[in-house]
Inverse folding.
């Protein structure tokens, strides 16, 4: 091994059952540097990362060379909870590891400090389930750092985290690298890769398609796939926008009088947001307020920008769902207060906030999945039963919910098609044959064709399952669709595709109201109205794109270290100049 | 590997099962008694403590043990599965308490003691013994069902099924029970062993079977005294009981492994 690397892989090929998971991968990890492997899920990142630890899938045939400096390799898995013992206080395991490697209390304290756990000692007496995801991850990082490794492999450390937490995670690994420990980052989250990586390897289908220093790669990606990956993360490609706008324009055609308030050239600002367009915006709509027309960014992402369409024959614009004086509790602790919230037909509402702020609880209250609340949720002015067990068929169908973890939300024993079709059978009384046909049709329109629907969930990717979950909810012909973080945990290309689908929904289903629960600014941008949930309190902020601006602008000073977010701040800063942020 | 285990498990379980179920058909009439604990003399497994032919006793003695054990296990699950499922799926805390707490009390009573107590009051006979053994197995089994089903019931898949308007039965049977099946199958393998042990012990202590009955467990007990003179009268029935429990466990293991592989 060359002098200046702590781990090296040369020409690695891992084959399971005749299929190559990883083929011809070479990489070199210099001390104190961050090497990032990026790529969609299933591209072989984890297999490569685990190879550094000397771990391979069961029954794998391995060829090539893996060499590493003597000493341990630390590993921080994607789900840190999975490597903590649920019945042991976290400190017990940590001390056991310390003892096994002949480390004393001071080393333990040092490892905790390196993992940015200054309050560590108190946390050690807790059980894993009493820690937040971020705290669990830090404990696992401390475990990985205890044997004083030369390399730490981190698998998707930021998946499903809000921007603020992501920033902290990035900081944590930057600190690790600063101590001379090399970090191998496996991630599809380009923000964190941007913030951290010195060297980037782009993987696709088990091969490294491009590698190089991070700056060079961002500036001038050579491979087409890298460009797609970077594009998808930024601003929607033109065809997606076209679809979105096409869907929006006809709305309000039969409107009442004051339909089209103004004509707005869109798309001035953003980074490569090269789509101009003309967009009718409703002057007196709820979303936009009376002040005039919001600057629109990212083009007409479907339901995003059209403002609240004026009420027309379909009753678009009338309130569908109304929340009054809602206080939700977990046990006896109140976690969410919503004095009043109105959702109108055909509108798209984003619910944003940090993880743990109560935004998911809000969505679950609407859908009847969280029944521990007082207050009322009204559908068309009639109170909905709190628990979905007491909702009748129509009302169950009216408010549908798409779960964050699509894989966990499907029965792993039955083919996806059967499960999707059941919605039409149960909620709309369709006969089994018609339901299957309709399910196939809906799935096909969401991009699941061929034999994909006939497979079991285990044989589908995360993005495909999330589409199937969407189809399952849509088959109920809902009036309100609550989507809980459905884009988190997906790689950028898949996420982009799913967002395009969401953007196209209102055109497909006039009158459908969307509630997007998210901490992803890109997703929130689809909405024309945004509410922010902060520590259980809900505040409403005017038009969608601007809200993100205010939010990020507000937190701007703190998210600076993430280059990606900085770009957002810069981009939105321009909007702030265009129009004052309240 | 898995196929090998299937065959091995199948063979190991087939011999005692076939002997137990079909043996009485081939036992024939009782022959004349001869000397106790004799070897040879026309009895190819020797004679037992009262001079009966051991082979004939083996043929006759399996049915009570095996049928009682199988019936008791099946009966136990028949009660435990619905109770555990109901407790796992209900949101009403009082209902869960109502279902599970009385069972916890029963759990605290040593099972053999309970059987002996009842037997002291009245001879239960084979049917009564099966009921008793089933009863003492319900609390255990119900707790395991509730735990396994509770885990499955807390998954988003169940909420998604409810969101689709699926009925309680469908959620409970087609998803929750199916997800809990692996755990239940593993438990059933162990439980059958435990039940066999309990039934044999009870018979060994004279509950559910007469002291001179043709019964594998009773044979082990009664012929113990002659173990060093004529080992077959103890070894053969003991090996058959061990074979039955081991074989059942091997079969369950193989079935689970195959299922696990099919899934992955």
């Amino acid at each position: 091994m060359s002098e200046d690397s702590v781990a090296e892989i040369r020409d690695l090929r891992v084959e399971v059952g005749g299929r190559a998971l990883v083929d011809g991968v070479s990489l070199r990890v210099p001390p104190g540097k961050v090497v990032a492997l990026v790529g969609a899920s299933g591209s072989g990142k984890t297999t490569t990362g685990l190879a550094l630890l000397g771990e391979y899938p069961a029954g794998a045939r391995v060829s090539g060379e893996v060499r590493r400096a003597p000493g341990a390799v630390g590993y921080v898995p994607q789900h840190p909870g999975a490597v903590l013992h649920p019945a042991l206080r976290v400190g017990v395991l940590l001390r056991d590891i310390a003892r096994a490697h002949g480390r004393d209390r001071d080393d333990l304290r040092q490892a905790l400090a390196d993992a940015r756990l200054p309050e560590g000692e108190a946390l050690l007496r807790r059980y894993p389930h009493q820690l937040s995801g971020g705290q669990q991850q830090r404990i696992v990082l401390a475990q990985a750092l205890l044997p004083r490794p030369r390399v730490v492999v981190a698998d998707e450390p930021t998946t499903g985290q809000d921007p603020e937490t992501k920033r902290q995670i990035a900081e944590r690994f930057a600190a690790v690298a600063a101590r001379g420990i090399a970090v191998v980052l496996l991630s599809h989250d380009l923000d964190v890769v941007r913030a951290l990586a010195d060297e980037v390897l782009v993987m696709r289908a088990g091969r490294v398609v491009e590698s190089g220093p991070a700056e060079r790669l961002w500036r001038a990606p050579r491979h087409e796939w890298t460009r797609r990956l970077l594009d998808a993360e930024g601003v929607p490609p033109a065809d997606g926008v076209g679809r979105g706008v096409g869907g929006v324009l006809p709305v309000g055609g039969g409107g009442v009088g004051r339909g089209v308030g103004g004509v707005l050239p869109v798309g001035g600002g953003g980074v490569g947001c090269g789509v101009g367009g003309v967009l009718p915006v409703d002057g007196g709509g709820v979303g936009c307020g009376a002040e005039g027309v919001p600057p629109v960014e990212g083009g007409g992402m479907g339901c995003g920008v059209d403002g609240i369409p004026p009420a027309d024959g379909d009753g678009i614009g009338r309130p569908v769902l109304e929340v009054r004086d809602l206080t939700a509790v977990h046990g006896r602790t109140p976690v969410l207060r919503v004095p009043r919230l109105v959702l109108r037909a055909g509108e798209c509402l984003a619910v944003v906030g940090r993880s743990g702020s109560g935004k998911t609880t809000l969505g679950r209250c609407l859908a009847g999945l969280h029944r521990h609340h007082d207050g009322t949720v009204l559908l068309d002015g009639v109170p909905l039963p709190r628990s979905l067990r007491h909702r009748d068929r129509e009302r169950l169908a009216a408010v549908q919910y798409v779960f964050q973890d699509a894989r966990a939300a499907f029965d792993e024993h039955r083919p996806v098609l059967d499960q999707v079709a059941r919605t039409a059978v149960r909620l709309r009384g369709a006969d089994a044959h018609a339901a299957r046909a309709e399910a196939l049709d809906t799935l096909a329109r969401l991009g699941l064709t061929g034999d994909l629907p006939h497979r079991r969930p285990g044989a589908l990717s995360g993005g495909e399952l999330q589409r199937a979950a969407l189809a399952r909810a849509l088959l109920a012909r809902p009036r309100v669709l609550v989507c809980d973080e459905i884009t988190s945990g997906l790689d950028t290309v898949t996420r982009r595709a799913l967002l395009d689908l969401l953007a196209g929904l209102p055109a497909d289903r006039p009158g459908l109201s969307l509630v997007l629960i998210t901490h992803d600014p890109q997703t929130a941008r689809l909405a024309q109205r945004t509410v922010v949930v902060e520590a259980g309190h809900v505040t409403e902020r005017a038009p969608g794109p601007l809200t993100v601006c205010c939010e990020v602008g507000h937190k701007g000073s703190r998210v600076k270290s993430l280059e990606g977010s900085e770009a957002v701040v810069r981009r939105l800063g321009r909007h702030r100049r265009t129009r004052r942020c309240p | 590997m898995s196929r090998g285990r299937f065959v091995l498990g199948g063979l190991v379980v087939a011999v005692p099962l076939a002997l137990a179920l079909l043996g009485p058909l081939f036992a024939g009439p009782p022959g004349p008694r001869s000397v106790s604990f004799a070897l040879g003399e026309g009895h190819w497994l020797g004679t037992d403590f009262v001079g009966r032919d051991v082979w004939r006793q083996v043929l006759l003695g399996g049915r009570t043990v095996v049928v009682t054990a199988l019936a008791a296990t099946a009966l136990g699950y028949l009660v435990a599965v619905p109770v555990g499922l109901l407790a796992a799926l209900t949101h009403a805390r009082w209902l869960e308490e109502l279902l599970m707490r009385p069972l916890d009390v029963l759990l605290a009573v040593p099972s053999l003691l309970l059987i002996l107590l009842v037997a002291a009051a009245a001879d239960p006979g084979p049917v009564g013994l099966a009921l008793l053994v089933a009863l003492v197995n319900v609390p255990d089994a119900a707790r395991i069902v509730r735990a396994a089903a509770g885990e499955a019931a807390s998954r988003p898949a169940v909420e998604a099924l409810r969101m689709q308007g699926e009925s309680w039965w469908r959620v409970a049977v087609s998803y929750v029970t199916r997800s809990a099946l692996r755990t239940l199958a593993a438990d059933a393998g162990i439980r059958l062993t435990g039940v066999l042990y309990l039934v044999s012990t009870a018979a060994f202590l004279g509950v559910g079977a007469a002291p001179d009955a043709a019964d594998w467990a009773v044979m082990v007990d009664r012929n113990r005294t002659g173990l060093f003179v004529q080992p077959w009268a103890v070894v053969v029935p003991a090996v058959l009981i061990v074979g039955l429990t081991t074989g059942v466990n091997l079969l369950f293991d193989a079935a689970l492994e195959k299922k696990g592989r099919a899934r992955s």
